[in-house]
Amino acid sequence: MDDIKKIVKIFHGPQHPGITGNMSVELDLIGETIQRAQTHVGYLHRGFEKLIERRTVVQGFTIVCRICVPEPDPNEENYARAVETLAGLEISEKAKYIRTMVLEMSRIAVQFMWMGGQAGSMGLGLIPQWSVCDRDYMLDLFEELTGGRVYHMYAFPGGVRRDIPEGFLGRLSKLLDYYEKRMTVYDNTFFDNTTFKARAIGVGIVKKEEALKNGYVGQTLRACGIERDVRKDMPYLMYDKLEFDIPTREEGDVYARAMVRRDEIFQSIRILRQIIEQMPSEGDILQKIPKHRKFTLPKNDVYIQTESARGAMSYYMAGDGSEKIRRMQVKGPSLIHGFTLLEKMLVGSELADVAMIMNSLGICPPEIER
Amino acid sequence: MAIDVKGVLSPLSAIGTLFKHPKTITYPEVKREFPHGYRGFHINDLDACIGCANCQEVCMNDAIDMIKSDKEYNPKNGSACIPRIDYGRCCWCSLCTDVCPPNSLKLDKECIHADSSGDNFLYMPKNEKDIS
Fold this sequence. Notes:
Radius of gyration of chain A: 21 Å
Order of helices and strands of chain B: HEHEEHEEEH
Number of domains of chain A: 1
Helix content of chain A: 40-55%
Oligomer: heterodimer
Strand order of the largest sheet of chain A: 1-2-3
CATH class of chain B: Alpha Beta
CATH class of chain A: Mainly Alpha
Distance between the termini of chain A: 42 Å
Strand order of the largest sheet of chain B: 4-1-6
Distance between the termini of chain B: 72 Å
Number of strands of chain A: 8
Order of helices and strands of chain A: HEEEHHHHHEEHHHHHHEEEHHH
Number of domains of chain B: 1
Largest sheet of chain A: 3 strands, antiparallel
Strand content of chain B: 15-25%
Shape of chain B: elongated
Shape of chain A: globular
Helix content of chain B: 10-25%
Radius of gyration of chain B: 24 Å
Mean pLDDT of chain A: 91
Low-confidence stretches of chain A: none
CATH architecture of chain B: 2-Layer Sandwich
């Protein structure tokens, strides 16, 4: 009876600076220690899967980038590749290189945004100011390449919508040089910061067996020592022709996940440098496709995966012989992390660690709810 | 217990940024330059527009209405209608410009519009000739 009187129920979100989007976590606390956690989603449900069923293949491509706000490009890539697989479209090598480049640029931009969220969740207010600014330089390149900073609408079934502007690869190379130098600053102020280590080491531990059993993906998996990445396990685009490593750690805690993300920034820079060198100067960027009312998909279905910055993003797409998509189901990395993992992991944690743990798992509510 | 000397001292290097020039621009005194190809507001070359309504047909947000034009710009415009975009519905995907047969409808770099009346967000694209 005394324990019942001591339980305090609070809602962490949906409006909360420590939430990585609009979702709430209902917490039962005794003191500062969490006894029970239950996630509540639904604030960001926009009905994407149903919206796409009522649109043609061409129209649907403009919607998918909005499923995951911070990371539109893996969604566009999944959609484009699913339609290409169903329709039997082959894209040119140049288009493959460009799409690979866009995915890696997006990965770096997301990791910078993650850094801001992770540091901000612990009160290190300086890092978000820097990382959002540094991410903006990448968004400047996206703006030049695609016409938009965040919603690119660039990877189209059949290729890409525009060719690379003149001098773009040179500007990208300069930005990569800047990022390599800049990471030393982030190492000094964030990754090697004793405050961050004290808060993050030993917190939010994921065990290897649990990660495999429950199907965790991305850095959550790799920080437990499991080297899994869709780019290596089921290569797509040009990933089988590019050299890169999959960083892993063994500890499985918040700090290990942060270090895996840090190392992935360097791997993305390595991949982009190879793409800059190998980019073909000629080739069609977009295959000829039927007009949008005549672009039909055969009666078939396909399952496509892309490695986003936070883990494997999967699309199931089914066609029914018409110009509309019969069904498209989206499963992002946050679905399993935001429900199964988070509710278990928070039990026994401290209230102050909730935001930090959510950021370390890369939970993206827009992607959970679609 | 060993003290993490590097972890304590290395963040202090951030103090050096106090003396660096900020990277933000002082808008509106300094305006931002948008790159060529930015997906901003629509412009339409009315001398080339044929009023085919391909743009209206492809728009997945039903943001485009074909409106009777005030005068004849192009004798080949059989419908005498030109597109008007509802900027409350438009998502600037630029599919409408992709399907335009005479390539008259385009997206310009201009992207700032403020108005106290919502009706003025039913946007009639500027005539490309009036801009250039």
